[in-house]
Structure formats: C-alpha cells, structure tokens
Design brief:
It is a single chain. The protein has 168 residues and is mostly helical. 31% of the residues lie in helices and 0% in strands. The chain is built from seven helices and no strands. The protein has helices spanning 9-19, 51-56, 70-76, 115-118, 126-132, 136-139, 153-165. The radius of gyration is 27 Å and the shape is globular. The two termini are 41 Å apart. 18% of the residues are buried.
C-alpha cells in the first residue's frame, strides 16, 4: 500500500516555523522536529481503489467494481453489430446474442460453434462476459470469434450492462 508522506499545509508551516526559530511561543534554540516525530500523515486512498487506477496498476478488474451505464454500452455494441444481433433466432457470422446473459456457451440452435465454445462449459454471467470480452481468444483458446476484444474496462462493463438489460 502506498502512503502519502506529504505533510498537510498546517503541519508543514508549523515545522517550518519551528525549524527556523519563528512563531509565537517557539524556542529558537530547540532542535527542529525529526521526521519521525512528525504527526503521522493521513493515508491516501489506495491507488487501486478505483477501477481505472486498478487497471493502470495491472490488477485484475471485476465487473462488480464498475458503475455501469447500459446506454453507453449500447454505443459500444456497435463494435459487435457486424457479427451479432440481439434478435432471437437470427444468426450472422456470430450467434444471436438474444438473452445471452445466463445462457450456456455454444447453445444457440443453428449456429456452427467451434468445439472450444461448445465444450467450454461456460455460462455467460456478467462477470464471465466481462472477462471474455477483454480478449476472447485468450479466454477461450480455439474460439472462432475473430475479435481482438475490448480493452477499456469501463466500455466493457457498459457493454455487459447493456447485454444484461437486453437479456431480461
């Protein structure tokens, strides 16, 4: 955990006055307080307390750590439209994403899934979709999905929220 070692402005002013012998009631001959004698600095929030900060530090992000916006996710879905639709029974290059949240992987009738997808045993929960959509080929080696993924975690979380809103 990183700590903030910067002193507050009031404490810094007090230390400065004390060190240079000024200030009401100061003892000009008293030694300046050592750094270890200073009041402990207030701890700064851990850098990884926000999803963006955690991503910057390389921490694994979880879908639940985001505040999502399905309307923004609908805009991100534009990346998916060339291969997927939300209409039931309509497959394109990719399977229909109608009610995808909660569905078993490889289960849309009439779509020719890869063996990796059919046999993955995955259920598309919001958390799994969030992870999968970052890098589909790394998540499910052997998938036919030729999509590099959505690297921005907030965009991914918004997309998952949109898919979830369309799965009810």
């Amino acid at each position: 955990m990183k700590r903030n070692f910067l002193m507050g402005s009031a404490l810094a002013a007090l230390v400065t006055l004390s060190a240079c012998g000024g200030g009401a009631g100061s003892d000009a001959n008293a030694p300046a307080p050592a750094a270890t004698e200073a009041a402990p600095a207030a701890e700064a929030p851990a850098a990884a307390e926000t999803p963006a900060a955690a991503a910057a530090e390389g921490a694994k992000l979880e879908y639940a750590s985001f505040t999502t916006d399905p309307a923004k996710g609908e805009k991100v879905f534009a990346l998916c439209r060339s291969c997927h639709v939300l209409d039931e029974g309509v497959n394109r290059v990719g399977p229909s994403l109608h009610k995808v949240v909660g569905r078993k992987s490889g289960s849309v009738p009439g779509f020719a899934y890869s063996e990796a997808n059919k046999n993955s045993g995955v259920t598309w929960t919001p958390e799994v979709l969030f992870e999968y959509l970052e890098d589909p080929k790394a998540f499910m080696p052997g998938t036919k999905m030729a999509f590099p993924g959505i690297k921005d975690p907030q965009d991914r979380a918004n997309l998952v929220a949109y898919l979830e809103s369309q799965s009810k």
